[in-house]
Design goal:
- The chain has one domain.
- It contains three helices and no strands.
- It is mainly alpha-helical and about 130 residues long.
């Protein structure tokens, strides 16, 4: 008898799949953002009003994505703190140089972090529906 295969991050039915691929949390097919390039700064957070595949409302209520700010902070901390410790112990940078390096890193990563924060936030509230 074969054991069931463990769920993988790339499995189309997993929550991580829709988040990592920035897909609709309901159908896992439609794109959350109008433009794929996160560094198109004029349109970085442009989202369609509804999913083009399942018609899920992406504008759930006014100010809905304000909660994504609470998601982006821990993402930044989880990226910066271990990296800061590694650089502090293994590189011979001054504090000023480390500060500038990390400021540039965090600013540079901000567009994708904002997108992933929104994907996580909407994923918390919208459940996957394979029938859609």
């Amino acid at each position: 008898m074969n054991a069931p295969e463990p769920t993988k991050v790339s499995h189309p039915e997993s929550k991580a799949y829709s988040i990592l691929r920035l897909k609709c949390p309901r159908c896992h097919k439609g794109n959350l953002f109008s433009v794929k390039n996160a560094y198109n700064l004029k349109r970085v957070l442009d989202m369609p009003d509804r999913c083009p595949v399942c018609n899920q409302d992406f504008r759930i209520e006014p100010g809905f994505y304000t909660g994504a700010l609470w998601v982006s902070f821990p993402i930044i901390v989880l990226l910066a703190v271990p990296l800061w410790i590694l650089v502090f112990w293994f590189a011979d940078f001054s504090f000023d140089m480390m500060f500038l390096l990390f400021a540039a890193l965090i600013i540079g990563l901000q567009p994708p972090i904002m997108r992933y924060s929104r994907a996580i936030w909407i994923g918390v509230f919208v459940k996957y529906d394979p029938g859609k």
